[in-house]
Write a structure and sequence with these properties.
Layout lengths: L1 H10 L5 H16 L6 H11 L24 H12 L13 H8 L5 E2 L6 E2 L6 H15 L43 H14 L1
Antiparallel strand pairs: 1-2
Length: about 200
């Protein structure tokens, strides 16, 4: 229920383009300072990414960097359409646990076995009462006539769900000023030495 309420909260916002810019900035920083990988792993990774529908000059960067939204809001519109599709009718929830945990929660039940690894599983439809609860509050607040069925999700009623404030700690200047040190102050060396000895 909380997952659907969170998506309802997102649908009630503009998806905050400044947040998208923050994510883009952080991914660029991560890409710029990423650590070297083993050559064989890296070659396989690049070979896989060559099939991506991106310009050849972005084959290495595109899978790792989130782009900022375009100025005409096309990407934002695509994001909203995707968000509308993330509703209770289109959802699948996967719950994994050890057999004893399931039996403790749900009692002994009939299980199917998948053919390759012999893993036991069950497939159940979401309870109708749960689906109605997820949809109900938005219908009550906005009125059924204004809502497409695909958008009929319950409004967010969990007050702590909100988009975060702007992150003021994202670095903007990443250059390092390299300076030659010609003279070391003996007093600072002495202080550092005393601190080191104190910790020991």
């Amino acid at each position: 229920m909380a997952a659907f309420k969170y998506m309802s909260m997102l649908r009630s916002t503009d998806l905050s383009p400044p947040h998208q810019a923050e994510v883009s900035s952080l991914s660029n920083i991560h890409f710029r300072f990423s650590e070297k990988r083993r050559p064989d792993d890296y070659a396989v990774w690049v070979a896989e990414k060559l099939s991506w529908p991106v310009p050849r000059e972005l084959v290495i960067k595109a899978p790792q960097v989130v782009s900022e939204w375009d100025t005409d809001s096309t990407a934002q519109g695509v994001a909203f359409r995707m968000l509308e599709g993330l509703n209770v009718r289109n959802s699948r929830t996967i719950l994994m646990a050890k057999k004893e945990k399931f039996h403790g929660l749900m009692g002994t039940q009939q299980w199917e076995t998948e053919p390759w690894y012999g893993t036991q599983y069950r497939v159940e439809r979401l309870d109708d009462a749960f689906v109605l609860e997820v949809r109900r509050s938005l219908l009550r607040v906005w009125g059924a006539s204004n809502i497409l069925l695909s958008q009929a999700e319950g409004a967010n009623t969990i007050d702590v769900f909100h988009l975060p404030r702007p992150n003021e700690f994202i670095p903007e200047r990443l250059d390092v000023d390299k300076r030659e040190v010609t003279q070391v102050c003996l007093s600072s060396v002495f202080v550092a030495e005393r601190l080191f000895l104190k910790r020991k």
